[in-house]
Amino acid sequence: MALLDAAPWAAPLRGHATQPARKGAKTLAHVWLYLVVVLVLSACGGGPTQPPAAPREVVQRGARLYAANCQSCHGDAVGGTVQDYPPVHNAKGHTWHHADCVLVQLTLDGMPPSPDVPPDAPRMQAFRDTLTADDVTAILAYIKTWWTDKQRVYQADVTRQGC
Ligand code: HEC
Asked: Is any atom of ligand 1 closer than 6 Å to the C-beta of 69?
């Protein structure tokens, strides 16, 4: 037994006597490793980050285009509810649930009339003949300035996954 206790090569044979101590050391190492990983991730900004804001000229161009083509139906920066028809594009609406490419395509191609809407209600027409995809992207950049930080982060994520 004394021989086994002393000899390093016999460690596996000594069995239980040394197990708890070694297990403890391993657990401590895991805790440290975990802490280091958490620290590194938080230093790199592991949380949600704001998408970069569009250049000011683009937002201004979008504002002009919006006022001329969309505002009469879709309202402006504030007011309205999610139930409004036509829908509002501001933070009260649901536009921020959709990815950029979906919003651009909807605007260029319009939307088929939904059956539950009265025939004389305003319709979302196709803007392909009046606006380019670049124009609609500028309009979206303007609309995005109305959303909350959380809505912008959410919508950027939907865009990354859906476009
Ligand atoms: C004549 C009124 C009218 C005009 C002008 C108009 N829209 Fe719409 N739009 C609608 C209606 C009505 C709907 C809802 C269609 C439905 O749900 O069936 C809609 C829906 C939408 C939607 C999908 C719903 C949402 O909020 O995500 C988008 C995006 C949209 N419009 C963008 C635009 C943009 C951009 C412009 C200007 C270039 C514009 N619309 C101009 C009436 C209009």
From this structure: yes
